[in-house]
Amino acid sequence: MEKIRVLVANRPRLMRELVLATISDQPDIEIMGEIKDESEIAHVVAESHPDFVIIALDRPDERPAICDELLAQHPQTKILALAPERNSSIFFWSVIDIRSAQIESSEEGILNAIRGKARLMAH
């Protein structure tokens, strides 16, 4: 069985320790590391390619800025943001959505599609 690779990057230290204590003895989870400095998250994720990154959730009503950067660069990575003091957790992931549409096979149809004016009939 392939293990789920997790990188723990949330703060403060006590929260990291609680997360590590919760997941460290799970047989299907491999802790790839612990990041103490948030400025290192993107670099470590790029080097280690974890399945999950656990980060701090500062504001439950706002997606952490690092999520956009990580998911754009590493769409296969999932992010779990935790804010225990507010009893709040959010799971972020990206989905590749490929769509197609029939367009009129004419000069006008091609130009309209390029300009985003085509009447799309999704498939």
Fold and architecture overview:
This protein is an alpha/beta fold and 123 residues long. The chain folds into 2 domains: 4-92, Rossmann fold (3-Layer(aba) Sandwich), CATH 3.40.50.2300; 97-123, no CATH class. 30% of the residues lie in helices and 25% in strands. It has 4 helices and 7 strands; from the N terminus they run βαβαβαβββαβ. It has helices at residues 13-23, 41-48, 65-73, 107-115, and strands at 4-8, 29-34, 52-56, 78-83, 88-92, 101-102, 121-122. It has a 5-stranded mixed beta sheet with strand order 2-1-3-4-5, with helices on one face. A two-stranded antiparallel ribbon has the order 6-7. A hairpin with a 4-residue loop joins strand 4 (78-83) and strand 5. Helix 2 packs parallel to helix 3 (65-73). The mean pLDDT is 84.
In short, what is this structure?
This protein is an alpha/beta fold and 123 residues long.
List the helices and strands and how they pair.
Layout: E1 4-8, H1 13-23, E2 29-34, H2 41-48, E3 52-56, H3 65-73, E4 78-83, E5 88-92, E6 101-102, H4 107-115, E7 121-122
Parallel strand pairs: 1-2, 1-3, 3-4
Antiparallel strand pairs: 4-5, 6-7
Helix pairs in contact: 2-3
